[in-house]
């Protein structure tokens, strides 16, 4: 039988992924107190390339924001974004008219399909304490047959996401099944919507000196662990330090042992789509011709236009967690 570990690799920005995943990025920004306008209470013109600030100066970044950190309106086609916010908040607005503020454990699942614009801004709500942001954004590919489906917006509220304690570990099941607990249903046209594709997205935390048994699967899947916080872990007698990914043999049970501090791990798993991938920025298709067609169509239609007053749209400071769906339905948490 093949060894449990196929490869160990250093985590960059973004993180290396395997089919059916296209992209994964981990944001940890220790934002200061808010300035009352949902931006940082700090001088922004000192040493920051506003609009393209990816340098982690003073522990945080503005990304493509100029007054509020985040990512103003931009298009997507041909895949899905899964945004899991562990700490802090994200304000979503899109060309479907959907909107929301989510965070503190919530997850947003958006199928771009044939085309959508959205913005993802990080409002600094607290004015009397720091505004730490921790989130994952994961891109999950769509197969050829689903690349032109209608866009779809869904919120997975943290109250509904299974959090399973097993021995010395806690597993947050964003997608997939663990120990008989099933994650909230993903978007309907997702590769994750079919059980045969065995897609799993789990956030695993193992207590100091604890252990966790990752069960094998008899399905064909790619399985990757991302060890992003802790002192060290050990798999198959191999010590691994933080900021490393592990490509695992999913046909074997794998025991993970934590070191002297709690280990934080993200698992991405799924049956590979095994189709050609052509990528250009926010577009993911099967051929270069389809990429060119996507660019031409976006220039012509703007994927429905932008119905919000600002490209970096944020919601009122007083708003709590909520979702407004394209049909006008509003859910308040």
Automatic annotation (TrEMBL):
Q: Which domain of life is it from?
A: Bacteria
Question: Which Gene3D superfamilies does this entry report, sorted A to Z?
Answer: Jelly Rolls
Pfam families in the record:
Pirin (PF02678), Pirin_C (PF05726)
Residue ranges of every copy of the Pirin N-terminal domain listed in the record: 66-140
Please report the stretch or stretches of sequence annotated as the Pirin C-terminal domain. Answer: 202-304
The record's annotation in SUPFAM superfamilies points to: RmlC-like cupins
Q: Which InterPro entries match?
A: Pirin, Pirin_C_dom, Pirin_N_dom, RmlC-like_jellyroll, RmlC_Cupin_sf
Q: Which protein family is named in the record?
A: Belongs to the pirin family.
This chain's protein is named Pirin domain protein
Q: Name its species.
A: Croceitalea dokdonensis DOKDO 023
């Amino acid at each position: 039988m093949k060894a449990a570990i196929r490869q160990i690799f250093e985590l960059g920005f973004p993180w290396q992924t395997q089919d059916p995943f296209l992209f994964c990025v981990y944001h940890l920004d220790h934002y200061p107190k808010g300035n009352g306008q949902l931006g940082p209470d700090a001088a922004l013109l000192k040493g920051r390339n506003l609009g393209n600030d990816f340098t982690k100066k003073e522990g945080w970044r503005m990304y493509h924001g100029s007054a509020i950190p985040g990512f103003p309106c931009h298009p997507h086609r041909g895949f899905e974004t899964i945004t899991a916010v562990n700490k802090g908040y994200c304000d979503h607005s899109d060309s479907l008219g959907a909107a929301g503020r989510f965070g503190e454990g919530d997850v947003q699942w958006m199928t771009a399909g044939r085309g959508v614009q959205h913005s993802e801004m990080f409002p600094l709500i607290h004015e009397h304490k720091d505004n730490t942001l921790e989130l994952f954004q994961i891109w999950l590919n769509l197969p050829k047959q689903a690349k032109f489906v209608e866009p779809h917006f869904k919120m997975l509220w943290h109250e509904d996401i299974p959090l399973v304690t097993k021995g010395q570990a806690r597993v947050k099941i964003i997608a997939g099944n663990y120990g008989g607990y099933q994650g909230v249903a993903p978007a309907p046209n997702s590769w994750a919507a079919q059980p045969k594709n065995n897609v799993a997205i789990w956030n695993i935390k193992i207590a100091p000196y604890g252990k966790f048994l990752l069960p094998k699967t008899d399905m064909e899947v790619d399985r990757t662990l991302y060890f992003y916080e802790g002192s060290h872990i050990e798999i198959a007698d191999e010590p691994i330090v933080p900021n490393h990914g592990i490509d695992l043999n999913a046909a074997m049970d794998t025991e993970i042992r934590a070191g002297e501090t709690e280990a934080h791990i993200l698992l991405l798993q799924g049956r590979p789509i095994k189709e050609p991938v052509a990528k250009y920025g926010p577009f993911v298709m099967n051929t270069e011709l389809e990429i060119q067609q996507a660019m031409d169509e976006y220039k012509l239609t703007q994927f429905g236009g932008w119905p919000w007053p600002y490209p970096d749209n944020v919601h009122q400071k007083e708003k709590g967690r909520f979702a407004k769906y394209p049909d006008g339905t509003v859910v308040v948490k």
